[in-house]
Amino acid sequence: MTADHISRSVLPSLAVCAFVFLGGPSEARSPATDARAGIQGFVENCFSPRMTAAIAAEALNFANVRHDFYDLDPFTDAAPSPVTARPATPGTDRRCEVAFDGDFTADAGKAIVNRLERIGITRVTDLPANHEALRTSTTTLLAARRLNPRKIAVVHVGTRPGPNGIEETFMYVERLRLSQ
Fold first, then answer.
1. Staple partner for 158: which of 91, 124, 138, 162, CB 3.0–4.6 Å?
2. Is residue 21 part of a domain?
3. Is position 164 within any domain?
4. Residue 65's domain spans which residues?
5. pTM, whole model, 2 decimals?
């Protein structure tokens, strides 16, 4: 067996083994990649009235993206999804939230505003007092939109300390009944 024959038959196999064991391009992650996935997953799914906990678990399952979802009064005949993470904001019956490391609030806020306009949720309404109290110095978007005569959606984007010891971007939408 010649050296040329070894390099043509063995070395490609070694390269494949190294690729498999050391990780290929799918392992190359960055905070910006995670943020894009989280933002896209949020805007494509969290405004859907048919979202359920099972759908959220699948649709928002990205590397390094954390999510929170509950729906106490589903639009469909799906079973209610209980509050399992952060406590429910008083008066809300649904939350869909994603969070990821780094400050990507400008991109997140822009994506939310664009999505709301694209799907026709444009009727601005007053922000409920209990949500106004959630505004912090890192809030970049906190707004309410009327969904129908009885319900509104509140969107909130900002940063906070994350579980990995660094700043994280959060974005959520909560649904609540209008005050009588």
1. 138
2. no
3. yes
4. 30-177
5. 0.81
